[in-house]
């Protein structure tokens, strides 16, 4: 049985987890607690983050939306700032799990867990987001490094995620019927810097689909997305679908996201 501690500051939380290799942060618990029930995770102590006041959403200089790490999925989905300035992200958050998961789950907990089928990682990659901790800022492109693995150091706690405003963004998800995780999820963003496409559910961790980005930069159309062939050799196969099936889904979902933006 894990010890339960309730942190009163980000500094205390980081120190508690850094001092024990088997300690874990507890945010919304929607990823960690199920893994504990299944015996896949056995932390020696849980450091609860509920009192840390990291649940604010604000806009900076009409250019950047900041979302606190403890913001719940339903809060992100319902935010007028997110709906207006990051419509694809609001759509993504509204489709995560079921009502209980959206009520309890947090953006920080989701990206720190880096589940291969989680939705937020694709959104961060597609939007060119930045993850902020007490120590540093980490570009989304450098944050997700492998299955359930991120660039975070032991005891390093996410405080917020910042997103450049992206009014032309959209999300398409092919769900696993039981878990509502992404069998494949595709996030598309078009702005003055070009096109970004983030993919989740298809590989050991979320990734950018550079072939789709190049095709859409040359021809912004659903047909251009559908014409791209995705290499299945780096994708996953499981009981829900083969790598080849996922490879076929990616350009189709991308095309639907493009059509939704137009």
Notes on the protein architecture:
The chain has 262 residues and is of the alpha+beta class. Among the domains are: 1-52, Uridine Diphospho-n-acetylenolpyruvylglucosamine Reductase, domain 2 (2-Layer Sandwich), CATH 3.30.43; 169-261, CO dehydrogenase flavoprotein, C-terminal domain (Enolase-like, domain 1), CATH 3.30.390.50. It has helices spanning 10-18, 32-37, 73-78, 80-85, 87-94, 99-104, 107-113, 120-127, 140-143, 210-218, 222-226, 243-261, and strands at 3-6, 23-26, 45-48, 57-60, 64-68, 130-133, 137-139, 144-146, 149-150, 158-164, 169-175, 182-191, 194-200, 207-208. The protein has a 5-stranded antiparallel beta sheet with strand order 4-5-10-6-7. Strands 11-12-13-14 form a 4-stranded antiparallel beta sheet, sandwiched between helices. Strands 1-3-2 form a 3-stranded parallel beta sheet, covered by helices on one side. A hairpin with a 3-residue loop joins strand 4 (57-60) and strand 5 (64-68). The longest helix is centred in the C-terminal third of the chain and has 19 residues, at 243-261. The mean pLDDT is 94.
